[in-house]
Amino acid sequence: MAEDSIFHRRVRRLMAMDREEIADRSRQFLLARADLLRYRFGHDFARKSHEVGSGSALGRFFFTRDELPAICDLLKAEFPAQVEAIVACAHRIRDHRFDLLGYENLDYGTPIDWHLDVVHGKRAPRTPWFKIRYLDFQQVGDAKITWELNRHQHFLTLAKAYLLTGDEAFVSEVISQWRHWWEENPYPLGINWASALEVSFRVQSWIWTLFLLQDCALFTDELRNQWIDRLLLSGRHINNYLSTYFSPNTHLLGEALALLCLGTLFSCPSTEGWREKGWSILIGESRKQVRADGFYFEQSTYYHVYALDMFLHARTLAIRNGVSIPEEFDKHLQRMLDALFLLSRAGVPHMFGDDDGGRLFDGRRNRSSHMLDPLATGAIIYQRGDCKALPKSLPEETLWLLGTKGFRDWKALNGAEAKAQPTAVTASGFYSMLDPESRQQLLIGAGPPDANSSAHRHADALTVSLIRGGRVLLRDSGTFEYVGPGRERACMRGTSAHSTLRVDRRDQSEMTGPFSWAGFPPVHVDRWINGEYFDLFEGRHSGYSCPNSPITHRRQVVHLRNSFWLVRDIVEGEGEHEIEIAWHLGSGLDSDMEANFSSADGSLSLALLTDESSGWSRTIREVTCSPVYGRVDRALVVTFAARRELPAEFVTVVTAGDREMNRGRLVKISDPLGNRPSAYRYIDDRCERTFVFANTDSAWQLGSWACDATLLCASNDHRTDLQELVLFDATFLDVDESRVLSCAKRVSHVEVRNFKHATTLFSTDPQVVNLEQSLDKLWSEWELLATKKKQ
Q: Which of 587, 356, 300, 582 is nearest to 467 (CA)?
């Protein structure tokens, strides 16, 4: 059955190809086999030293040879800890110990086995590259581990260590490893030629190394010519095997960036047209791969930053070499910066989707804190003070890209000059609820409104994550690996690994491979409102529906600013079903009481409060999560579950603070019977807040309150005498048969605040709203609680 499925998928894929794709794939197929035949007849693909001699002029790199000493001096003066880390890492590299992805201190021995996945002890065969099944774990292990070493980004570390210390032993190690690599990887054999993207990363590393070591005596003219010859051979491979149809995502961007760099920096017959081709692809793909809201189409934070790095590197090199930058391209990059800024306003970005683990320039910049780095580069390029506000300091990469002038521009830039920021990237489905004072941000991942089946997206519709002051409280589970001996990838992509709801233990989407889905359920966002002092999100999807059993999951999130979040989940449909709602806690949070979870030092606390009378079970268990590709941490997941006749609802209050925070309690005070809505009251030692959810837009009665709002929020702070009322889709509110508020027509929302006897009113249509009595009328008696006691 599985083979039939694969066969049928391939047939469908072939039928979907147009003539251009069929022609390009056929050309690549024939060229690969022709190159193998030439190799067997002794052809030397790299021998082109007659094209680029030692006296040839090169294009302008990110820095000139004259700027190198100043950059190194600035590193020593401003970033001494970074300098120490570079040199220490370079010493480990000389001992053939590497940090790759999330794996640390991997010993590759002497000589280095460039075909080995040392973590799993599997060695890829030295066969023609196009015959290697690099996603077959049994054949090659995890190819990403092998490829990460073969990207040769550690050459840059060795080269920088030489510049910072003057020790030529670091350069000798670069040269030795580079020559040995070519002995072990003759073109076109081996896994290290199997991906044009991996060749492109290696090209970037070799170019950087060449320019960093351009004045070193060990880097002779003969070696330089050999180095460039092999760069041109690599460029030929990239140009011939572009991922135009195979992986038109970051694969194609990385390959285009390599062609742009080679064509710009090395002018010779072999590179003719490469600069224009690479630049054209980057411009075109910025239109295709970046959504209108600025977020990357793969629905992954990591891939968003990955792509943004590539675009920023390309733009910087283009400017250095007099290439005109289209206005549209700059708009795409600025929108990407806006989207990253939106995700990062609590100190680090909210991570969704796959975590690739690799980066340009330095593969060790792969933790969530490093995802802010492009904001620093963008801040300087576009003079964006808001982008400067989030990174704690200037990343080393930005210094190498923009030089000492970039550093001066960074220092002169006013980080307080923030532009107006969006609260959502709606085309991609990310909605942000922020408390600036406490630096906490809850982000809702609704997914795009279409059924886009991005390879690196997860089955996580309507998930939420929460960050406070750079500490993750509610999280995505990560990736860990793309292929492996177990089911970790499938588990971490699945719905149960995210803070959302499941029905009958099913995923929202069906996986058809490690990078494919049968499709995603469209997510409909019914309301997204940012008021003066509140936020409201309402979304739904039907991912759990069967042909004869339609099921809809609705999630409402209400946030009163500088307060908590109330999450209401509704499952609509028929029949009895098993429902579970998971909350995946950040690493380092442990349970210290019934519903409270705190960090070991007590500086951070999270509470998940529910109605104790709901009858839903509650379990806490330890699971795995992956903060970076290749690394596993332990964390807690809290799950509420029940078997219920539909429709069913469940409400959770999420609140964060320190260990001494006021937890409060949640009480359900009304079930949706007749014209009565569903109502809850949250009570702590300072405030009481009531939430009323109507199931129709008709009038309802609850105790002494009568209204026709679809949602009502009322708050009374006893310490400050602050009273608040928010109504949605309402025309009136009565208390004890006396009108408190009226609207000449139904309005989207109304906010009323009464503070120290001063009343303010905000509305989408304020001229039709009339406040007829003080809000004191709402709180004259505990009418709702009294109503519940009588029932």
A: 587
State the pTM of this model: 0.94
Residue 632's DSSP bridge partners are none
Q: How far apart are the first and last CA of the chain?
A: 58
Distances (CA, A) of 311 to 153, 318, 709: 19, 10, 47
* pLDDT for the residue 453: 65
Tokens of 737: 């048969």
> Residue 229 and residue 210: Cα distance in Å, rounded?
12
User: DSSP class of residue 53?
Assistant: -
Distances (CA, A) of 51 to 611, 641, 670: 76, 69, 82
Residue 466 to residues 131, 431, 529, 659: CA-CA distances in angstroms?
Answer: 45, 12, 19, 17
How far, in Å, are 682, 736, 784 from residue 780 at the CA level? 18, 10, 11
The CA-based dihedral angle spanning residues 46, 48, 54, 56, taken in that order and rounded to the nearest 10 degrees: -120
**Exposed / middle / buried, residue 4 (Cβ in 10 Å: 0-12, 13-18, 19+):** exposed
How many C-alpha atoms does 262 have within 13 Å on its Cβ side?
Answer: 37
Angle, vertex CA 168, rays to CA 165 and CA 172, nearest 5:
135
Q: How many other C-beta atoms are found inside a 10 Å radius of the C-beta of residue 251?
A: 18
Cα–Cα distance, 365 to 390 (Å, whole number): 17
pLDDT tens readout for residues 370-423: 999 999 999 999 999 999 989 989 999 999 999 999 999 999 998 875 555 679
Where helices occur in 95-195 by DSSP H, the ranges are 137-140, 143-150, 154-165, 169-184
Contact 569, 650 (CB under 8 A): yes
Once rounded to an integer, what is the mean pLDDT over residues 104-118? 97
- The DSSP secondary-structure symbol of 546 reads B
Q: What is the pLDDT of residues 193-210, one digit of tens each?
A: 999 999 999 999 999 999
pLDDT grade, residue 781 (50/70/90)? very low
pLDDT at 732 over 70: yes
Token pair belonging to 535: 């936020």
In order, the DSSP letters of 726-777 are EEEEEEEEEETTEEEEEEEEEEEEEEEEEETTEEEEEESSGGGEEE-S-GGG
Alpha carbons within 13 angstroms on the beta-carbon side of residue 97 total 8
Find where tokens 């220490």 sit: 88
Relative to beta strand 631-645, strand 648-657 is unpaired
Whether the pLDDT of residue 491 is over 60: the answer is yes
pLDDT of residue 2: 42
d(CA 172, CA 174): 5
Is it true that the peptide bond before 188 is cis, omega within 30 degrees of 0?
yes
C-alpha distances in Å from residue 454, one per residue of 21, 64, 236, 281, 787 = 20, 40, 29, 20, 50
d(CA 304, CA 336): 8
Q: Can you tell me the distance from the alpha carbon of 271 to that of 276, in angstroms, rounded to the nearest whole number?
A: 10
Residue 55 is predicted with a pLDDT of 41
3-state secondary structure of 453: coil
From residue 67, how far is each of 62, 64, 219, 361, 627 by CA, in Å? 10, 5, 19, 18, 37
Distance CA 789, CA 791 (A): 6
- Give whole-number Cα distances, 317 to 2, 322, 696, in Å: 47, 9, 58
- Could you report the per-residue pLDDT of 151-178, keeping only the tens digit for each? 999 999 999 999 999 999 999 999 999 9
Is the bond preceding residue 647 a cis peptide, omega within 30 degrees?
yes
Q: Establish how many alpha carbons lie within 13 A of residue 291's alpha carbon, considering only the half-sphere containing its beta carbon.
A: 23
Q: Is the dihedral of CA 620, 622, 624, 626 positive or negative?
A: positive
CA 58: distance to chain centroid?
37
Residue 398 is classified by DSSP as: H
